[in-house]
Amino acid sequence: MKERNNEAFLYSVSDMTAGELKSAYLWMCRQLGLLPRKSLLKTRTNRDRIESWYRLIHRRPSHHAVGNALFSIYETLKGREIYKHMIHGDFRFE
């Protein structure tokens, strides 16, 4: 996106991220016995079918979806420097 100065290059990764976050959210709600907010599930993604199928077969979201959700939360709480800490072996889940 930066190299081409074109935000359209963000679509694919944003689409995948949204689909995976939705999948993790749906699974989490089911595990906790909560009703998911429909407003959070409105956006359709190309990942929806794959994640839905994966949850049906394996009873959980894909590994990538779980990791994506987990690190999105950690990045929000701790900042982007968590990735530098991980690379250098200084990161711990708290």
Q: Order of SSEs, N→C?
A: HHHH
Mean pLDDT: 92
Please bin the fraction of helical residues: 55-70%
The biggest beta sheet is recorded as: none
Description of the structure:
The protein contains four helices and no strands. The protein is globular. The longest helix is centred in the N-terminal third of the chain and has 22 residues, at 11-32. By secondary structure, the protein is mainly α. 60% of the residues lie in helices and 0% in strands. The chain has a domain at 7-66. Helix 1 (11-32) packs parallel to helix 2 and helix 1 crosses helix 3 (63-78).
Question: How is the secondary structure organized here?
Answer:
Blueprint: H1 11-32, H2 48-58, H3 63-78, H4 81-87
Helix pairs in contact: 1-2, 1-3
